[in-house]
Amino acid sequence: MFEELQQAQEVYELITTYLVTYGFQLFGAIIILLVGIFIAGKVAVKLNDFMLSKDMDVTLSKFTASTIKVVIIFMIAIMALGRIGISITPFVAAIGALSLGAGLALQGLLSNYGAGISIIIARPFVVGDTILVQGVSGVVKDIQLGYTILTNEDEAIITIPNRHIVGEIIYNSNESSILELSVGIAYHCNPEQTIAIIAEVFEGMEGLDQNKTPQIGIDNFGDSSININI
Questions:
Q1: Rounded to the nearest 5 degrees, what angle is found at the Cα of 50, between the Cα atoms of 46 and 51?
Q2: Burial (0-12, 13-18, 19+ Cβ within 10 Å), 82
């Protein structure tokens, strides 16, 4: 019991000595950190608004603003640690060791992040585009660092890890969706007349891009029908 009280007394004296010695520095470091976080948030918001005002991609704007915010907070944290006499060298070494272990354990996650950065920079598609990749199609709803979110005509949410997108063949019809239909007619029917009737049906139809004429023609000759593809 006496030893525990003595240890507690030593800890108390150590904390008291530290606060007396570095009290003002600690207070200043906290102020610096809080002000830095506030400034970083403001800078990120202003940068995001500026990039959006220049009609830049939403995802690229968010990514750039978030990266700048993290960099500013990291720099402010280093300044704050220096104010209270803490050397950051051991932290840098520890971060390096942890990064190596985390990199080996989280290869899949990191590959998703790397692919996400590639998508954001190269911009093979942007939010609002209709894409087909890995046999999955839908409208791009959001692009995150780790994954891309699509939504289809059934309003289903489709989440695709970015490593399954980069390096694959991507069909991008931009803001339009390509609709394919097939109609079978009997062999005694007139294909040209059928094609003319179908074209008349689609003429002026609401929701269709009137600047693009529907492509209608014979796709193949089936066992029991002539298949017209639209």
A1: 120
A2: middle
Q: Helix and strand tally (H, E) in the chain?
A: 5, 8
pTM for the full predicted model: 0.49
C-alpha distances (whole Å) from 127 to each of 109, 113, 138 are 22, 18, 11
What is the rounded CA–CA span in Å between residue 170 and residue 147? 15
**Cα–Cα dist 230/219, whole Å:** 9
User: What Å distances lie between residue 15 and 9, 174, 187, CA to CA?
Assistant: 10, 62, 94
Query: pLDDT tens-digit profile of 24-54?
Result: 677 777 888 888 888 888 888 888 888 888 7
Q: Which tokens in the block code for residue 168?
A: 């694959």
**Do 219 and 182 contact (CB within 8 A), yes or no?**
yes
What's the CA gap between 118 and 99, in Å, rounded? 21
Tokens of 208: 């269709």
81 touches 29 (CB < 8 A): yes
Q: Six-digit token pair at 52?
A: 């959006």
